[in-house]
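comment on this one:
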Amino acid sequence: MIMTGGTAGVGGWCFKDYPELQPILSLLLGGSNDEDRSDGPPRESVLAKAVAEVFAKTPNRPGVYTVRINEVQLDPREFTVGRTVDIQARVRKIDERGNETTVWESKIYGENLAVVGRDELSAQWSNRPFEIDWRNGDQVVVEVWDRKAGLFSPTSFKMARPAPDAFPLASGAHALEVVSRSRSAAESDLNRIVLDSRRSGDSAPRLDDAARRSADTRSASSRSAPARRGPDLSDADFADRPIIIR
């Protein structure tokens, strides 16, 4: 009962950020009444499906992922009471060659206004999923900021970096670290971002550096080579030939 008591038990507490794991725990620790149940699919098939869904949501393999930002929450102590803030987020990717691209940005979907001290400082874009092609060596930067902050009083946050070789946008809650602020303040556990991600496919093949250089060399050679005007004909041969007008 303690282990499987939902959010009130140990199972619920351990997996509060990964609710998809709770049915697996229930299946493993279910009583004899569950085993004798004749209606519904066998426990083994249900368990296999649940495990497959968990690995789809919490993977580390390179590939294409569909990601949703289910929640952004900020500590109001980071802001001035009475101010109106506009919470926005952005996801950038930097590949191993240093090329940077903006994968997703929230500001195109409008404002997320809240009054500090009166409203909860939170936002969510669960209905605005995006895809990211992640490979080993890629860095992913997740930023959250107040778009209404003045030039001299910026308040921005970055998601903490994951372990090496781990998919940086894995499902669950991630801490947001304060990047800049107008006054000194301690880091807060209230600053966090909750993601939901699923691996949707493999990355498209990418030429390695050697193949790319070879392709570039062949392309340059084809551009610089003179056009052929006939077999073994020199410029002098063309100069001596008469012009025929038909």
